[in-house]
Amino acid sequence: MADKNPWTDGAETMMKSWTDAQKLMWEGWADMARVSASPKANGSASNPAANPFAGAVQEWQRLTEANMKAWQGQSPMTGNVAQQMMASQGMMMQLLEQTTKAWQMMMPHLNSGGDWQSSLKEVGETFQKQMMEAPLTFMQTTKDSGELWSLYLKEWQKFMPMMGSMGDGANVMSMGMTGNAPMTQMVDRIWSAYESTLGRAVNAPTLGYSRELNAKMLNAFDAWVDVRRAEADYQMLTAQLWVKAFDTVMKKLVERAQQGDMVSSAKDLINTWVSTADDVFVAEFGTQDYIEAQGEYLNATMAYKVRENALREVFYEAQGIPTRRELDETHETIHGLRRELRALKGIKKEFAAFKDELKEGQGSGLEDELETLKAELSDLRKDLDDAQKALKNTEKVSADGVRALESNLPIKKYGDLTIGDITKKLEKLSGYELEQIRAFELLHKNRKTLMQELDRKLQEGA
Amino acid sequence: MSDVALFNPVEVSRDLVNLNKDLLNGLDNLYNLSEDDLEFGLTPKEEIAREENIVLYRYTPVVKNPHPVPLLINYALVNRPYMVDLQPDRSLVKSLLELGIDVYIIDWGYPRKVDRYRTLDDYINYYIDTFVDTIRERHDLEKINVLGICQGGVFSLCYSALHGDKVKNLITMVAPVDFSTDEGLLNRWAGCTVGTQAMDPDLMVEAMGNIGGDFMNYGYLMLRPFALGMGKYINLIDTMNDERKLENFMRMERWIFDSPDQAGEAWRQFMKDFYQDNKLIKGEIELGGQRVDLGKIDMPVLNVYAELDHLVPPVSSQALSKYIGSDDFTEKSFPVGHIGMYVSGKVQKTLPPTIAEWLKEH
Q1: How far is CA B269 from CA A200, B171, B300, in A?
Q2: Chain B residues with CB inside 8 Å of A177's CB?
Q3: Domain count along chain B
Q4: What is the pTM of this model?
Q5: Does residue B232 lie within any of the structural domains?
Q6: Going by fewer Cβ within 10 Å, which terminus of chain A is more open, N or C?
Q7: In the prediction, which pLDDT does A46 show?
Q8: pLDDT digits (tens, 9 = 90+) for B173-189
Q9: Does residue B112 lie in a domain region?
């Protein structure tokens, strides 16, 4: 037979202890029934009759704590679920205890048709008072800045582990919800190191370095006080919510009881609790007051963390430890480089695509097109050559013609003479000869001065 | 004991004792459960491309001739994408494959501190675009089909508005469009009504860098604090002796708490521009210097939403039809919540055919 696992052993022990607790619980019910049946029975919130669940709850918590160690080394996920189940069961029993306590107080009035609502109100007020004890104490403390400073320094002594409580929004908020926001635990080793190095500097405000440190510490202190105030406000609001949920659940149970629909099991009771309380909480969660209180708490926590980071960096820098800011700068640079790299990859891709396109182009008719173009170009060149030859022939024919005309002009070697020479020779020419010269000049060089002189001569002759 | 009894104390205490005994027995089953029993994402897939820690996968087709135009699934950044393939009998992907769709998916991975400066422009104009190009090249297609889920739906809308020439058909599933609705608690907490008074994204990114997955999860759990924080664990006691049901619960539990951190810059922009300033429907979102105009979405669009969605109120998804330019718009709803879209047995029978048939018709 295989060895039993540690949990199975523990569970067997728990089972035995739980069976014993069960007997006590039933005996408790019997006692309670006797008390309730007494005509003098009239419990109050501050002095309720013995509650049979109370001992069972304590026993369950003790057993849970003792046996959950068996889950160490198991998959974290199963361990977490086991822890959550045990805690839920514990919470369920606490709710049963509270419900029973309230019922004890309301029962005589319910039976007599009296004012049970006042009893319920009394229970709610007691409940609220208990839940608001911590935030109210803090609110009282805020009047004494010296005490606050002392509290803050005490908290800073924990230095590094602060991150665990303040940095994680989930932890912070969940602690606020449960009304249990413990100061973070002291880590002696780190605190000793701090004291022996920079701790002294905090107490020496005349040093430049300490002035900076003190300024940052005071900044952080202010933010820390804001967090605590916001936390207290949030806890008070949450306490009111709990009371409202409790009141609604109890009224619902009374309503069911009056209709003869008695709660039949622990699960029935707890499911009533869950659905009713969720409705109350969710409705309230959406209100402006709640959103603002939650936002104030969250934002104050974040503002504190920013200042705490700034303060912590002073220590890190002094110790030669890379700071968060330096890491952020590095990460920002890396991000910028990544983007550049992507851009380059994009260019490379486009270039590759262009090359592919070119390659594809060679095999898809471009070469033929090029050959056609080359042939056309060759034809064009040939045409151009022919045209040039034709032009030369034309020029030659034209030159011969000019020479023949020139030889018949009344002025010999007309083409070699200057305008002045020609003008002198015009004096001896007849009108017909002047017309001959004018026509030749017009068709060939068409020189303005000479043309004007010829026109003048012809007008004189006319 | 009393004439008006709220409950029978003996019965309740006996029930409590038995419940606790059941719990102790059931935890024995849980204790013996190993990680191997909780495998997820079992549908075979192949890595096609990788950009930093972001991976494009292709699920192996199971029909001989799948639909010629592949489908790319863009999941949200806030949870892991294996929700679409949680287990064989709850797998949107498996069903789509069986219906002949060729499916790709982007796995956004787990952003690290070095990814803090990753922006929405990076996500949409680089990673999505690069992977879309990869698929187009592989299939020698001008356009492919895109399915965006939740926040991934928002990304897909932005992508389709900017790169419409690469998207043949667009499907959005439980995707928020009008962020101003105060019907959703998440929208209010994110600041849709009071802006930074509810949450200051700049301050949060300055303080934390990347936004922790635990923080996000806390917000989701607080939407139903008693049911999600206590009720479900107490109700689990009833099913702990059923190995299959316990495994199903644990798979879901693993998915719920498997929340990647959010890259600071992208988260900042998403919270401010989308949740707080509702810029998507105003046409004021800018990515890489380009304005996102939903009116440019002119391809056929199928919008799918969950009628009981408490994370993305139906009214937020339904707004889509008012802002896109497409004249081929279809809308389908299912009577489940946000998560029910992936895990409800009934929806798993009707949602995949709805998607596959619509794609084949377009």
Answers
A1: 43, 24, 28
A2: 222, 225
A3: 1
A4: 0.75
A5: no
A6: N
A7: 44
A8: 999 999 998 888 899 99
A9: yes
